Amino acid sequence: MFFTKTLVLSLAALAAAHPGHEQEEKRQAIAARSTMAANKRALDNCAASLNKRGLHSAAAERRQAEVERQRISRGLPINNGRVKRSSVEKRNTTDVLAKDHQGTLDGQRAINDELYVFQDEKCTVLNPQGEVGPFYVPGEYIRSDLRENELGVEIFIDAQFIDVNTCEPIVGGWFDVWNCNSTGVYTGIQSDMNGNGDDASNLNNTALRGIQQTDENGVVQFLSMFPGHYSGRVNHMHVVFHTEATVLPNGTLTGGNVPHIGQFFWDQDLIDTVEATAPYNINNQSVTLNSEDHVFGEQETEGSDSDPVFNYVYLGDDITDGLFTWIVVGINTSASYTPTYSFELTEGGGVAVDGQDGGGFPA
Question: Would you say 136 and 186 are in contact if contact means Cβ atoms under 8 Å apart?
Answer without folding.
Answer: no
